[in-house]
Amino acid sequence: MSIDVCASEELPETGDAPLQVAGHTLSSRLIVGTGKYDTLPLMRDSLLASGSRAVTVAVRRERMYDRNGQNILDYIDPTQFLLLPNTAGCYNATDAVRVAKLGREILRALENPGANWVKLEVLGDSKTLLPDPVATIEACQRLVEDGFQVLCYTSDDPIVAKRLKAAGAASVMPAGSPIGSGQGILNPNNLQIILEYLKEDDPNYPVIVDAGVGTASDVAVAFELGADGVLLNSAIAHARDPIQMSVAMKHAAIAGRAAFLSGRIPKRLYATASSPQEGVISTRPW
Amino acid sequence: MNSPTITVQFNGQAVDVPAGSSISYLLTSAEIRSQLVAVEVNSEIVPREDHGTYQLGDGDIVEAVTLVGGG
Fold first, then answer.
1. A42 CB neighbour count, 10 Å cutoff
2. CA-CA distance, B46 to A68, in Å (whole number)?
3. pLDDT at site A168
4. How far is A206 from chain B (nearest CA, A)?
5. Which of A37, A81, A58, A75 is nearest to A242 (CA)?
6. Do A252 and A282 form a contact (C-beta atoms < 8 A)?
7. Per DSSP, what are the bridge partners of residue A59?
8. Which residues, 6+ apart, have CB-to-CB distance to A42 below 8 Å?
9. What is the pLDDT of residue A285?
10. Beta-strand pair A24-26/B5-10
11. What region does A78 belong to: left with phi over 0, alpha with psi -120 to 50, or beta?
12. φ, ψ for residue A193 (rounded to 5)?
């Protein structure tokens, strides 16, 4: 069974191509999370407002979350959204591989075409939620061997990013800043180096900024730097008005991407007049 | 005479079920919608197609997981 999640929405008129990642074609370059919403109906409406076609989900014991018997899948139409299961909450490679396989098994039974991909997240400690780079590389290798398309959450370290790509990651997903921190992109230089390294001989290799977004301008900055996608959750789910913020994020992604494709002017120390210098009738003060 | 029972660890809790119970029986008795879960027995995934025929044994560790909100 195949679902063309791109079909129902035209690309904005920016001359842009859809995001290609892990064998999927996505008409929106935003991937949004489904966690932390006050209610499931609010989550549903926010996802729709964001225009995203791929949403992350976590794998947890049944009934530990919603004792009313509600399931998140009652509020996400799997024919409209690709589900991207994550390995959030894992602190070693073995647990991450185990959770990835369980997520794949659930999606396989749902006949959701996202079944073979996973957002790999192997954390180093619970205070920073920073990734454990060694365990992430190990888990990535094991999942790739098992046939997964692995989207790897990682820090903004360019060398680790290179190692993950070499390990077979379908996408490397550097954090802008710590998960849920809302600090935006703290080290745009590192992100630029990652983009340069990973796309050097492979310009279409997808790099997705994952984590740290606080508001719409952070999304725009990520795309202006050349990121292929942005993955965010808290900035929408914990905004005072998540639906309105979803709309803002959608437009920020379109704006930032279009700006990147347009080629920005270089920054200069001094001014450059926009009006002609010739034919001026006024006198100059010097 | 009561039929013999076995005890399994189901999502971290001890649960008594009749000997010979299947995974499907366990899920149904817990009122879990089987189409939305993946099941592991002793850390090995049991494919959904086999839930009806897989017979649980005494002391089995069973995990049933589903999808929840996450980033």
1. 15
2. 26
3. 98
4. 19
5. A37
6. no
7. B67
8. A242, A243
9. 80
10. unpaired
11. alpha
12. -65, -40
Domain boundaries, chain A: 19-262
Question: Between β-strands B38-41 and B44-46, what pairing exists: parallel, antiparallel or unpaired?
Answer: antiparallel
- Paired strand residues for A254: none
Which of B37, B68, B71 lies closest to A72 in CB terms? B68
Do the chains contact at B71 and A56, CB–CB below 8 Å? Answer: yes
A232 half-sphere exposure, CB direction, 13 A CA radius: 39
Return the CATH fold of B5-65. Ubiquitin-like (UB roll) (3.10.20)
Q: Is A35 in contact with B67 (Cβ distance < 8 A)?
A: no
Neighbours of B3 (CB within 10 A): 7
Structure ipTM: 0.93
Q: Is the CB of residue B42 less than 8 Å from the CB of residue B63?
A: no
Domain A19-262 has CATH 3.20.20.70: yes
For residues B69 and A42, is the Cβ–Cβ distance under 8 A? no
Nearest Cα residue to A187 out of A218, A151, A228, A152: A218
Residues 6+ apart with CB under 8 A from A238: A36
Rg from Cα positions in chain B: 12
* Six token digits for residue A174: 């550097």
> How wide is the angle at C-alpha A151 spanned by C-alphas A248 and A161, nearest 5°?
100
- Give the separation between CA A40 and CA A34, rounded to whole angstroms: 9
Find how far residue B16's CA is from the centre of its chain: 11
Q: How many angstroms separate the CA of residue B36 from the nearest CA in chain A?
A: 6
Q: Which residue in B30, B64, B69 is closest to A36 by CB distance?
A: B69
Amino acid at B27: L
pLDDT single digits (tens) A70-123:
889 999 998 889 999 999 999 999 999 999 999 999 999 888 887 899 999 999
